[in-house]
Task: structure prediction
Amino acid sequence: MTIYQEEAYAYTMRALIALDGSRSSKRALEFFIRRPEFASSEIILFRSVPPILNLTVESAYEKLLEHEAFNSIKNNLEELAAELEAKGFRVKAIIKFGDPRSTILETAAEEKTDLIVMGTKGLSGISRLLIGSVAQFIVANSSVPVLVVPDRD
Result:
């Protein structure tokens, strides 16, 4: 009798974690990193920064606000990336200016991700109709699976 031993197939999942500074996006990240099946994943921390002000207005104060907001977001992502690297994850941080709906999908494609992870605030009724749901849009338009983690206690 001949016994064949299958070689282990080493595959590293690339997951884009869409962050927006909310509790729901932090919970989505926490959910992801606690799951043993994602332990060897490469994490792409992604933050989309919508334009603060109309870009046709060019004042020094408005540019300063944009610069300060960007630096704050950049510092937060760098700290988060360092924490995750200390836990053994491979991490890349990306910030893009623009609408979250388009920048999440564009970045997922550019980075050849296998999964998009995001939180949802659980809006319903009129709020969802008026504000819209980024998560709903991503699920409907993504070419890769989307893990949506609800913000519930």
